């Protein structure tokens, strides 16, 4: 009787544990992704190294561009010359 109960409950427990792991992994990947618009900056000139251009979705694989320039995000928003993170779009 004990063996029959074990043989019935064990597969259900494994499936439940697998489903819980799959859902938690999916939730982590969604919460870790950056969504929303990010200000895009172009490397315009030495005097103005980070000129604000347009907002980029920062999703996809294509480079986000404006007026023929690739756009970048600032690692530190308070910095005036640190825009080195490439932005993408769909």
TrEMBL record:
Recorded superkingdom: Bacteria
Record keywords, A-Z: Signal
Record protein name field: NVEALA protein
Signal peptide annotation: 1-27
Keyword Signal: yes
Species of the source: Flavobacterium noncentrifugens
């Amino acid at each position: 009787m004990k063996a029959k109960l074990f043989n019935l409950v064990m597969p259900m427990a494994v499936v439940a544990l697998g489903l819980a792991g799959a859902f938690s992994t999916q939730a982590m990947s969604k919460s870790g992704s950056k969504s929303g618009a990010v200000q895009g900056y172009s490397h315009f000139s030495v005097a103005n190294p980070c000129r604000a251009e347009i907002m980029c979705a920062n999703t996809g694989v294509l480079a986000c561009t404006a007026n023929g320039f690739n756009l970048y995000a600032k690692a530190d928003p308070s910095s005036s010359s640190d825009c080195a993170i490439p932005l993408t779009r769909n």
